[in-house]
Design a protein that fits this description.
By secondary structure, this protein is α/β, with parallel strands linked by helices. The chain is built from 18 helices and 20 strands. It has three domains: about 90 residues, Rossmann fold (3-Layer(aba) Sandwich), CATH 3.40.50.720; about 200 residues, 3-Layer(aba) Sandwich (UDP-N-acetylmuramoyl-L-alanine:D-glutamate ligase); about 140 residues, Protein-Tyrosine Phosphatase, Chain A, CATH 3.90.190.20. Helix 6 crosses helix 13 and helix 12 runs antiparallel to helix 13.
Length: about 450
């Protein structure tokens, strides 16, 4: 699309929307920022833009009318905007192209695209892959759901750049031409059903990462995920399997403390897991996926090996914080759904005081609770979901006398400080989003670490 003089609605005026509007301006379009938030004014929205280009955009509050829609050439949704709300449906019915920031940035920029999606492990895998690609070629950008908007990097990206992008199901809903040369779907378990409504729709959105791929491209898939094993039979791209449970010929696998890549009958050791900084089989899966993607992109094995050996854990994902009085504290604030939280408790090797709870995403907590395997000495629940999680725990047979409820995370941490014993671990792994008490999981994790380092003597 030629963006010059095109009128584009930017739906959502947060960080993502501002980045989108600024990219549209640089591409020659005229953006109109729209925010449904009650009480906000057009001037307040426009003040968020860079002062040099503020006069090249407009802002809209209130209602989106048919007359307004008729004047548009394009609409770009922020990731948090559902695609099935009345305003968005009206845009689609009027024939207005409805994109997300990923599609826009892709249309404006270039480069070799390596895209990572899945329910859990995206951030660790994306970060590792980004480090591998940077070590192979400094002209590499790591963007997307990891916290660096693709739109902010788009104008710097050239046809020779590498773009490593973490993609959520929300972002994949609105792609049209987005085409990664290498993609990965790490796993698929229930998440964001408050947005997608059904598991089938959530799976459909995840699979869309391969929408424009063909057999010249590569898709890295988890052989131990039943949904993905079936998807591999119909995938448009050449499939590169990884497994944590069996030997894979022409793939990559974990066995007997080693990660092995096999190609054309050759077996190459990529890593010895006891020498890595990332604990747990789920992290070995993330490493395998990142290594497979880098290998598929042509990175030499010695660079892949050296980067993996030096790689440190992702912040807020089973992150070691400190040991105080014989108690080890772990921050897994990024465990925002039950399956991610399962990985957190599985990585523990000590009796654990587990802090859970937060914003209600209508999740089913029972599999998480069943995964405790006798490790959870105290189940410390806080936030809006505390009563629902307690009910699920009782249904699963977890002892009621070992469940305690608090309104805030601070109160939960005080309980853990007073009741943890030498040899224990305290794990913040909420299985819930942070919204309500905290603006995002990063702030929640930072508050947890701050408390551990400053309040516990």
């Amino acid at each position: 699309m030629d963006f010059k003089n095109k009128k584009a609605l930017v739906y959502g005026a947060g960080k993502s929307g501002i980045g989108t509007a600024e990219l549209l301006i640089h591409a020659g379009a005229h953006p109109i920022l729209f925010d449904e938030k009650a009480g906000i004014t057009s001037d307040e929205i426009l003040e968020r833009l860079d002062g040099k280009i503020r006069g090249l955009a407009d802002a809209l509050t209130g209602d989106i009318t048919p007359e307004f829609i008729s004047e548009l050439d394009l609409a770009v949704l922020s990731p948090g905007v559902p695609t099935d709300i009345p305003n968005v449906l009206a845009l689609k019915q009027a024939g207005i192209p409805v994109w997300g920031e990923v599609e826009l940035a892709y249309r404006v920029s270039g480069g070799k695209i390596l895209g990572v999606t899945g329910t859990n492990g995206k951030t660790t895998t994306t970060t590792l892959l980004g480090e591998i690609m940077k070590n192979a070629d400094p002209d590499t950008y790591v963007v997307g759901n990891i916290g660096n908007p693709y739109t902010e990097a788009a104008l710097k990206i050239t046809d020779h750049s590498n773009v490593v992008i973490e993609l959520s199901s929300f972002q994949l809903e609105t792609i049209e031409e987005f085409h990664p040369s290498v993609s990965a779907i790490l796993n698929i378990t229930p998440d964001h059903l408050n947005r997608h409504h059904t598991m089938e729709e959530y799976i459909r959105c995840k699979k869309r990462i391969t929408l424009n791929q063909d057999k010249r491209d590569t898709c890295v898939l988890n052989y131990e995920d039943e949904v993905l094993r079936e998807f591999g039979k119909e995938c448009n791209a050449d499939v590169f399997w990884f497994s944590s449970a069996r030997v894979i010929e022409n793939g990559i696998y974990y066995a007997d403390g080693e990660i092995i890549l096999t190609r054309d009958g050759k077996h190459e050791r990529i890593a010895e897991t006891d020498k890595l900084s990332l604990p747990g089989v789920h992290n070995y899966e993330n490493i395998m996926a990142g290594a497979a993607m880098a290998y598929s992109a042509g990175v030499p094995l010695d660079i892949i090996r050296d980067t993996i050996a030096a790689f440190k854990p992702v912040e807020h994902r089973i992150e070691y914080v400190d040991e105080k009085n014989g108690v080890v504290w772990y921050n897994d604030s990024k465990g925002t759904n039950p399956d991610a939280a399962i990985k957190g408790i599985q990585a523990m090797s000590r009796p654990t005081l587990l802090i859970g709870g937060g914003y209600d995403k209508k999740s089913d907590y029972r599999d998480w609770i069943r995964s405790f395997d006798g490790k959870v000495r105290w189940f410390v629940l806080e936030g809006k979901t505390r009563h629902d999680i307690k009910a699920a725990a009782l249904e699963c047979g977890y002892p009621e006398e070992k469940i305690v409820l608090f309104e805030t995370m601070h109160e939960a941490m005080e309980f853990c400080r007073d009741h943890a014993e030498p040899g224990d671990a305290v794990l913040l792994s909420p299985a819930c989003a942070s919204w309500g008490e905290f603006p995002n999981y990063e702030v929640r994790g930072e508050k947890f670490k701050e408390y551990v380092r400053k309040e516990i003597q």
